[in-house]
Amino acid sequence: MRALTDALIITKRQLLQLARVPEVLIFSTIQPVMFVLLFRYVFGGSINTGQPGGYVQLLMPGIFVQTTAFTLAATASGLAEDMTKGLIDRFRSLPISRSALVFGRTLGDGLLNVVVLFVMGIAGFLVGWRPTSGPVKIGLAFIFLLAFGYALSWVGIFAGLSARDYRVVQNVSFLITFPLTFLSNAFAPTTGMPRALQYVAEWNPVSTMVAACRELFGLKNQFGATAGSFPSEHPLPMSLIYMVLILLVFVPLSVRKYTHAAKK
Amino acid sequence: MKAIIADHLVKTYRNGEVRALDNLSLDVAEGTVLSVLGPNGAGKTTVVRILTTLLTPDSGSASVGGIDVIKHPDKVREIIGLSGQYAAVDETLTGMDNLVMFGRLYHLGKKAAILRADELLERFSLTDSARRPIKTYSGGMRRRLDLAASLIVQPKVLFLDEPTTGLDPRGRQEMWGVIEELVKGGVTLLLTTQYLDEADQLADDIAVIDHGKVIARGTSDALKTQVGGERLEVVVDQQHVGATMEIVSRVSGQKASLDEGLRLISAPVTTGAGALIEVLRSLDTAGIHPLDVGLKRPSLDDVFMSLTGHAAEDEVKELDTGKRSGRKSKKDKKVKGANA
């Protein structure tokens, strides 16, 4: 109980930061909206999906997943900055539970994702995205996305605590998440990729997430299920397995890292 | 009763290559102030990090307020306050936000946290800036806020790691004032510093450390005595140097030494002001008018030099304007004092 209230205080800190510097929230939603517009109107016209409603139906789930994956960078750099500036030391010298800080931080990131996904959903609707599966499945898809974002923010925590300098972290996380989201079925079918790449793309958790979301939004998963690989055939259970694996590895690693954290 | 005990602490880095602490032992009696004095890299921060439960030593033991820091770090955290070398506060939040957040983390209720924050802001003259983000604060204000954050639950034992490093002379003076107030309130304080005058000013007791070991321990006076007593110094015109040398040597009982460039004649004395009067009288009789005359007590700089063989700030790597100007102003003062 104590640990939970401590964590919530940390979460509140993050919300206060957003209230004090609202630009952060504005820009972290503008970027994905920009992606929506670029893909929808620049590439969308040339990609024939054979899907009723066109490319935007396939694009939006991809953008949703990409957006949740990109928040990893913000988590990592935020934590690395706390570390460099000695805040982590202060938190560690307080009589609070060891997991409160990292746990609170991931909750805050989760809330941030709620806001960003909401804005993205509206942006998608405005450019013609129309999920057809009904409210329950649509709701499930968003819960799925939030869970994925939550799991990834633990990776961000670990990266942030391991970093030597917060200015490096953002770039490094971007270098990892950018190819990870493009080397997938998010924006183009995997069938057009060289064979080897196709396997990588289909085993990529981003792909299974995108495919799972497409299913939940009522689409036939056209960009997957081509190489006949297991993950592209079973995107929903595979995505769940990935999330559990990420949490199983990175929660203990992050808490351990925090406990032994030393200011660089 | 000892509020802090460190017993044969050893901490090595890079697989034993770097010995940050080498069997370091120290203790601080309740309600007193110990200054841990040493150059950069001497191990000051490592000691503080171990005592505040942030770091585990390779061997040795330590206790704070009678509680073992290795076995019961949680209990230690409840009675300590720590203010480090950097202002460890959230820069995007306001001063008020920060103090309320830390208050809540110290398990104060919402109202109590706000009340306490108000109190501390008032006490550290930050009320006017309470609603501004820390980003807009001066270095001195940040440090004061950082210190305020470490005082939220009135810690029994307070650790200040280089509280004035990087501050300009004014910021330093303000910080000293604040620390002196705290000490009057009876807190046990361990303060690290690389400024000898700071140790002199604030601490009851000084532990000089170098290469991870305590190389001297005692009051400022005791340390100075260890280096040697007072010296009598006279500056005269070139033509009187010879005669003055004789007079000073006679009063001192030891041969006076001469700095030819400054025409400064000096010798150790044991009778203090008496010796000064005697020398002045003899000079007057001889018709010599000294340009400057005085008794010089050894400074902690001299202590450090004689203990370690190098000056205290030899190892300061960073260019830090705050530090430089701080030192300079102190030297200026010394010169003025000698002329007065």
Automatic annotation (TrEMBL), chain A:
- Alphabetized UniProt keyword annotations: Membrane, Transmembrane, Transmembrane helix
Q: GO CC: one term?
A: ATP-binding cassette (ABC) transporter complex
Membrane topology per the entry is: Multi-pass membrane protein
First-listed, main subcellular location of the protein, grouped into a coarse class? membrane
Q: Does the keyword Nucleotidyltransferase apply?
A: no
Q: Where in the cell is it found?
A: Membrane
- Pfam family, any one: ABC2_membrane
Single GO molecular-function term?
ABC-type transporter activity
Instruction: Tell me which species this is from.
Output: freshwater metagenome
Instruction: Cite the ABC transmembrane type-2 domain residue spans from the record.
Output: 23-261
Which residues span the membrane?
21-43, 55-79, 100-126, 138-161, 168-188, 236-255
- What is the protein's given name? Unannotated protein
